[in-house]
Structures are given as C-alpha cells and as structure tokens.
Amino acid sequence: MSVQPGWYVDPADPETRRYWDGEGWLGAPIPVDATPPDGPPPVEPPPVPVTPVTPVTPAAPAAPAAPGPAAPGWSPHPAPGPQPGHGPQPGQGPQPGPGWGPQAGPPGWPPYGVPPGWAPHGGPPGWPGRPPEPRPHGQALAGYGQRFAARLIDFGLVFALNALVNGWFVWRWVQEWAPYWRELLRRAARGDTSTEGMPVPSEQAGLLLVVILVIATALWLAYEVPAMAAGGQTVGKRVMRIRAVPLAADQPLGFGRALSRWTTLGMPTLLWYCAGLGLLLQLVDALSPLFDHQLRQALHDKRAQTVVVQVPRTTGAATQNDSNQPSGETP
C-alpha cells in the first residue's frame, strides 16, 4: 500500500513535519505544531553559483631610471605591468581546471558535489530515508506484543466459558479414553509394546469430541463477533488498548465484517478432529502478522480488510493537535 502525498511527521526528526509527494520528501521541514499549508510547499529556486572575484591591484608606477645608454634593440620607454596574455585579467577570478564545473566537481555533477541522480540528502534515487510508519486514520499500528497479549486474555476467557458449559462433555470423553491410557501406561512400565487386547473406546467417544468442538466454536463465536461488530474490541483488546478498524473508514466493523474476520481464525476449531489440522491453520494465522511489515495484518485482517490500531491515551489538547493531521496520516 503506497504512502499518499501529504504532510507527515519526519521520522528522522519527530519535532518537525515535512511534505511527502509519494516518492520522497519535498521542501524544507516545518515545526510539528505549525499548521501545514494546503498542498505541497512552494518550489525553492536552485542556488545560483557565485564565482568569487579577485580584485586586481594596479601596479605601482616605476621610478624613473637614470638616463643612460639603452641596449641595442630595447625601447627607451618600456611599458610597466604584466606582459599581454599573462596573469589575471581585470574583473576575473581564478579559473577552474579544464573540464571541471564551477563547484569543483566533475562535468555533469550538480552543485555541492552530489552525484548525478542522487537525492539531496545523499541517498540513492527514490530513497527519501526511512519511510514513515503507516498510521491508518491517524492512529498508530498495534504492536505484535499487544496483539498477542490481547489474544491470550481472550483465549483465557473463552476457556473459562468452556469449563462451565463444556465441562460435563469433556469429563465424559476422558472417561471413555481412561481405560485405554491406563492399560497403555501399565504395559509401558513392563516394557510390553504389544497392542493386542487393548480396551477400545466406544463410538460415543467420537461423538462426544464432535459435540465438544461444536460447543467450543459456538462459545468463541458468541464471545468475539458481537463485541467486534459493535466497537472493534474484545475484553483482551480493551485491556491492551487496541482495536480493529476497517481500512476504508474509521467506523465500526459491523456484523458481516466481524464475522468474516472471525471465521478465518475461529472456524478451523472444528478441524481439530482431523489430526489437529485446525490447530495448525490457526497457528499460521496467528503468526502471519510477523511477515506483514507494512500494516501488520493477519490473514483474518486481510480477508475482512481490517487493521488493528492503538487506542489513543490522551485527550483534550492532544486531540486538538491531532485534528491538524490530514485525514489518513498515512494510508
């Protein structure tokens, strides 16, 4: 996602603000608390090279020589001063070496010795320094640690709900498998690796596992989707002061977008029955923000076109200062 042109805080100097034209910084910086003008700054005229002028001191008049016989072929009144074609001419300074420009650089180099095609700051073409970090709707992106801690809090709450609602089904499922595991441990202690005569769980064990996963998925859906649809925050996100917002506008997600976001991460819970395939898919989704260096979007964020941002802590004067930021500090 490209950074749109506008006035942004200079990452190299947070006390100043500069204009970003989509490819590089343009113009001189202004104080960060100053109101930026509409549009880009006026183009500054290039500096005019000034050639130093060396004043020519007129030669002192020569003292009259005593009259005497002149050498054969010499003029009786020699002209004082330098001979024609030698020395500096009036109104001119020292001349540069042949083929070099007025700023002591090779031919074709711009003023001040900057190599051709390089930006004035000394970097390669198109490198304005470190690009500013995206700020969707003027808010900073949530950090990886904040998102991980919020997800752990939410998982803890959903687990507590499952302990209350799903506890009896889990206990029955454990009872179905308990004879098998006890016999397996007893044979392992004797060094017996045979599997003949092992107690086999009944068909009810498979049905119980399906019921457990369906209830767990439904509880997670009921916990997360309504809260995200209304305000973009679960309990964990409120504690960590982060929230999910649409990329298009700073507004509530709505039920459809919140459901689309959750299904990418929550629905694979039903596939835990398939040798843990669902758990693997959820792990990939949870780690995906680490590989998105632009907006730190997880796979469920990309599907629902959302991004997770930090909730501002300050109000009042700080909010008024933020109002000077153009809409969408960076895309």
Describe this structure in words.
By secondary structure, this protein is mainly alpha-helical. Among the domains are: 44 residues, no CATH class; 130 residues, no CATH class. The protein contains eight helices and five strands, in the order E-E-E-H-H-H-H-E-H-H-H-E-H. Strands 1-2-3 form a three-stranded antiparallel beta sheet, with no helix packed on it. Strands 4-5 form a two-stranded antiparallel sheet. Strand 1 and strand 2 form a beta hairpin. Helix 1 crosses helix 3, helix 2 crosses helix 3 and helix 3 runs antiparallel to helix 5. The C terminus is likely disordered. This is RDD family protein. Keywords: Cell membrane, Membrane, Transmembrane, Transmembrane helix.
Counting DSSP E segments of at least 2 residues, the number of strands comes to 5
Largest sheet: 3 strands, antiparallel
The CA-CA distance between the termini, in Å, is 7 Å
Overall geometry comes to elongated
- Global Rg: 39 Å
What is the tally of helical segments?
A: 8
Derived from helix and strand composition plus strand pairing, the structural class reads mainly alpha
Portion of residues in beta strands equals 5-15%
Helix/strand order: EEEHHHHEHHHEH
Across the major sheet, the strand order is 1-2-3
**Taking all residues together, what is the mean pLDDT?**
76
Helix proportion: 25-40%
Uncertain regions: pLDDT < 50 for 5+ in a row? 70-76, 99-105, 109-125, 327-331
